[in-house]
Write a structure and sequence with these properties.
two-stranded parallel sheet, 12% strand, Methyltransferase, Cobalt-precorrin-4 Transmethylase, Domain 2, cytoplasm, alpha+beta, 47% helix
Length: 88
């Protein structure tokens, strides 16, 4: 994690070697803390359920991993920013 974060800070690309898990592959190159993480997966489709899940995630200190379809990425980022705040 420390090396990947240092590379990210210096804009040096990190290319992970894919393995059996896309989650771990992406996490290894992210520069985010890897000592503890939670795989959330896909969020609920209904607005209220999705916001409830994001509120739960906002209270977690571990790195959170979400699967977000490309066409819903903008919506997710807006909702996450509103709930998580600027610190995350």
């Amino acid at each position: 994690m420390e090396l990947a974060k240092l590379c990210a800070d210096k804009n040096i690309p990190v290319v992970p070697i894919p393995g059996p898990s896309a989650v771990v592959t992406a996490l290894s190159a992210s520069g985010l803390p890897t000592n503890e993480f939670s795989f959330v997966g896909f969020l609920p489709k209904h607005n209220s359920s999705r916001k409830e899940r994001l509120i739960l995630s906002a209270n977690e200190s571990a790195t959170q991993i979400f699967f977000i379809p490309p066409h819903k990425l903008s919506q997710f980022l807006e909702e996450a920013a509103a709930i998580f705040g600027e610190s995350r």
